[in-house]
Write a structure and sequence with these properties.
- The protein has four helices and 39 strands.
- By secondary structure, the chain is mostly beta strands.
- The chain has three domains: 156 residues, Pectate Lyase C-like (3 Solenoid); 144 residues, no CATH class; 36 residues, no CATH class.
- The chain is elongated, with a radius of gyration of 26 Å.
- The N terminus is likely disordered.
- Strand 1, helix 2 and strand 2 form a beta-alpha-beta unit.
- The longest helix is centred in the C-terminal third of the chain and has 12 residues.
- The strands form three sheets. A 14-stranded parallel β-sheet has the order 1-2-5-8-11-14-17-20-23-26-29-32-35-38.
- The N and C termini lie far apart (64 Å).
- Helices cover 9% and strands 36% of the residues.
Amino acid sequence: MKWILITLLLLTSKYALIAKSLHVGSNHSFKTIKAALEKTENGDTVYIHKGLYKEGNIIVNKSITLFGIDRPILDGDKKYEVLSVKSSYVTIRGLRVQHSGYASLDDPGGIKVYDATRVTIIDNELYDNFFGIYIQFSTHCLIKNNKIVAFGKEEQTIGNGIHCWKSDSLQIIGNSMKGCRDGIYFEFVNNSVIWRNTVTDNIRYGLHFMNSNNDAYFTNIFSRNGAGVAVMFSKKITMMNNTFNENWGDAAYGILLKEISDCHLSGNTFNKNTAAIFMDGCNRTIVEKNAFSNNGWGLKIQANCMDNTIQSNNFLKNTFDVSTNGTLLLNKFQYNYWDKYTGYDLNKDKIGDVPYRPLSLYSVIVENNPTAMLLYRSLIVTLLDQSEKKIPSLTPENFIDEKPLMNLLKL
């Protein structure tokens, strides 16, 4: 018997032998979630049955699973942080968490994780909370398939959908966010992945990076957000196969890249944004195999950007394909397709024989005098641009794609 027990202990987790199930609901052993939590031990599962639970701030301080049956509602009554997770190895699944308190000092959330590891938050609804899901000082957490809806009108009155602070190795997968300040916010968050999220109609940014390194975001949709996406003061960020749509406004971009280095953008689609990409203080970043279409500006690249490579992209139906604010270009353009290119290909190698100057004189004028947009599509603008392409005088002479493509790339 002794050896059997030893074998079982070796083959199971440290909680498996003592784990129990507790049921909460009007027809079950526990009437409140808090009463059930008092009786839990590490490894237990609390099944919360359908109903409305107004219990103030519910604190989880053991390694347990909270499992909602028929979407029970945890309501903060607009006074409390609803669910506070202060233990590692916690799973929260199948709940509707709503109406948290609103406060700018302690940032209450629908679900807030404090200094924990291996917390899983999956398949929940977060409705009308100040912050939807808040992760701080935590590692190896999974946030998956949650729906977050808020009703913010101004930045000061609402928090972020998924807010991550000083954390590492997070996975943010398959969530949807709407009506928040920022859909997803990373600050001092490293080695993390954001994948397959849908982020729409948020007040400020769909995704906001600050001082975060070695992260990646793939196959997300960012649409109709106040200013698109911002990646700032970060390095080694991979941005692939995302869609940036309809981020319109005076200071709106598909994506703002500010003070970043050694990053990679590939396979993204930018459609109907004021400016698809705005690069400010970017170094050693590769922008390749992206589609820029129907934007005000395809690419705004400031003069303080160096050693960036813009290659193998499609530029279609943009008002301005490229713009800059300086007279010196320290970046490389090559193998891009430009729908405004009118050159020829005599040797049939599918590369234009004449280099292309994507920077128009009119875009330079508009950059310095925005009111000049009133002359858009006028004859004088057409004449100015044509003469500048023949004899460059005001645009940087080295702002040039030496090898423009004749055919649209298949991305």
